[in-house]
Amino acid sequence: MNTTGSITMSIRELDRLRMIHAVAERQLKPDCAVKAARRAVALIRERYVDFGPTLACEKLRECQYLP
Q: What backbone phi and psi angles, to 5 degrees, belong to 47?
C-alpha cells in the first residue's frame, strides 16, 4: 500500500515520535528515554520555568543537558 499525504502534529507529539523511533531503531533504550525526559522536565521546572518550549529546549542543548 502506497499512500501519500500529510498529518498535523504538535511539537510534543513530534518529540514523542522521535523517541519512539529511536527506541524502535535500537538507538535508545526505553529506560534511557524515560530518564532523559524526566531529567529534562526537572531541569526546566528548576531553572527555565519562565521559558517557552523552544527556548527551553535550546537552552538545555546549549548547556549540554540534552544531546
A: -115, -30
